[in-house]
Amino acid sequence: xxxxxxxxxxxxxxxxxxxxxxxxxxxxxxxxxxxxxxxxxxxxxxxxxxxxxxxxxxxxxxxxxxxxxxxxxxxxxxxxxxxxxxxxxxxxxxxxxxxxxxxxxxxxxxxxxxxxxxxxxxxxxxxxxxxxxxxxxx
Amino acid sequence: xxxxxxxxxxxxxxxxxxxxxxxxxxxxxxxxxxxxxxxxxxxxxxxxxxxxxxxxxxxxxxxxxxxxxxxxxxxxxxxxxxxxxxxxxxxxxxxxxxxxxxxxxxxxxxxxxxxxxxxxxxxxxxxxxxxxxxxxxxxxxxxxxxxxxxxxxxxxxxxxxxxxxxxxxxxxxxxxxxxxxxxx
Lengths: 138, 184
What we know:
The complex is a heterodimer. Chain A is mostly helical. Chain A has helices at 6-13, 24-83, 88-137.
């Protein structure tokens, strides 16, 4: 770079008198704040969409794999309840029995469901963390 | 300055949007001066400089600290200036290829380094160059950026940049002589 060369001087002269207006940073910062706001809103919508998909998968898993078990429990309870109308004592006994059966089935269902939900949540958390780390590294 | 830039960039990436103003205050005039030299219409320079800083903010996470922050900004400025010029369809003066090919390098070099009175037409000749050519000479001859780095910024090979630089110098020679009415 030869500062005495005619080319350097001609380039230096080009737009020499031009300066940025004093409020330049202020204007850009406003635009950047708007960009940031849009980005946060977009991230929020993606987050909502992610959770919606996870919830759908969880419900689908529930219905697909445990729907029959739940249905059966419901029918058994209804039948037991109808039969128990014969006598109050019998009904009470049957209802307790039915409740026990339902509780046992529900407990089975919950035992199977909790690990699935936990896995889904951990997976979601892990993926989000991984994506965030990757973006920071970039 | 570089370490300080790195620290500020990290802060911005971590969510401190307001810290970006420090970078802008530090580099906006520098970027603006470069853009004024590259674009043919000086009035567009402010708009392009704005776009440069907004785009830099959007892509800050992609800045890999391999170059200086100012070089990275210059690269964005160059891309913005080129796309802006393409949008506006700015005309450049065509020069006959054969004329350029027949010009000896030595003659052009000695002319451009001389105090020949015809060099008064140099600013006008620079104005007649394309945005790429103006960017090339501004980066290399004014900002003093090594040709290899300029080539990286313009996404061309170093040898292509060398050829383009020589061709631009020849073009300036022809234009100066045309403008001062003493060529041909």
